[in-house]
């Protein structure tokens, strides 16, 4: 994909030694894992002479367990999703929580991590952030890793193998080289995150890939190896919903015209029809409410730094 006529990513040089780095974890009922993730980021990346992370924020997406208390007691700032830009609807889904995470933070580089990782390594954050800091031409850096399933190495990533990769290969072959297109660990520049839409549901990762490649070029998407990743596996019931949302997003981004008789409902024998969400949150940079919210965030951050 040519990058001619696409907006340039080069920004004015910052006066500080490096761009600021934030970590955002969207979470819904991840009380069993979120504490360990936050503790490791706080201990290894937010203290000492080699401090890398300036913000650690958990966006609590209406959890009914102890997600919020586990995150807060292990060094994270926890913000309920409903408290961030409340006028924007629909106010639900992973992508929505990520979009609100951008709105509620101020760092130049944002690293997203899933909250269900069983063996979290702070190296994930370090590798993603440092790659984006070092490579100024990149807009996004995706992590890739070995993923197993039921003890079998390389058998993880079922939705990627069965839906995302075939769909990308067909409609966006320049993105089929992304090893983990649906992986939840990646770093993105704030300048970029503010200028793309965020799909509210499970299609957020694949939509970001397609939209960033379309706007800035596929060559601005980098990859970095993160080693091994273990997370809580979802049921086939949940994966079918995820796969359906991804299918809808890829077809939409490919410009496939909607046909009479097609359905937004996922129909499965023995289950009620499940409506597929394809709602999107708009680019933040042109939202007046976001600009006002950022002023508040900057004030809170300045107070926090002053108190520290």
Strand content: 15-25%
Low-confidence stretches: 1-5, 10-15, 152-156
**CATH class bucket of the domain at 21-156 and 174-233 and 283-299:** Alpha Beta
Question: What's the rounded overall pLDDT mean?
Answer: 88
Task: Write the CATH architecture name of the domain at 21-156 and 174-233 and 283-299.
Answer: Alpha-Beta Complex
Helix content: 25-40%
The strands making up the biggest β-sheet line up spatially as 3-2-1-4-6-5-8
Q: How large is the radius of gyration?
A: 19 Å
Alpha-carbon distance between the two ends: 46 Å
Number of helices: 9
Sequence of secondary-structure elements = EHEHEHEHEHEHEHEHEEEH
Judged by helices, strands and strand pairing, the structural class is alpha/beta
Description:
By secondary structure, the protein is α/β, with parallel strands linked by helices. It has a domain at 21-156 and 174-233 and 283-299: Spore Coat Polysaccharide Biosynthesis Protein SpsA, Chain A (Alpha-Beta Complex). Helix content is 35%, strand content 16%. The protein has nine helices and eleven strands. The strands form three sheets. Strands 3-2-1-4-6-5-8 form a seven-stranded mixed sheet, sandwiched between helices. A two-stranded antiparallel sheet has the order 7-11. A two-stranded antiparallel ribbon has the order 9-10. Strand 2, helix 2 and strand 3 form a beta-alpha-beta unit. The N and C termini lie far apart (46 Å).
Please sum up the structure shown.
With 308 residues, the chain is an alpha/beta fold. It contains 9 helices and 11 strands.
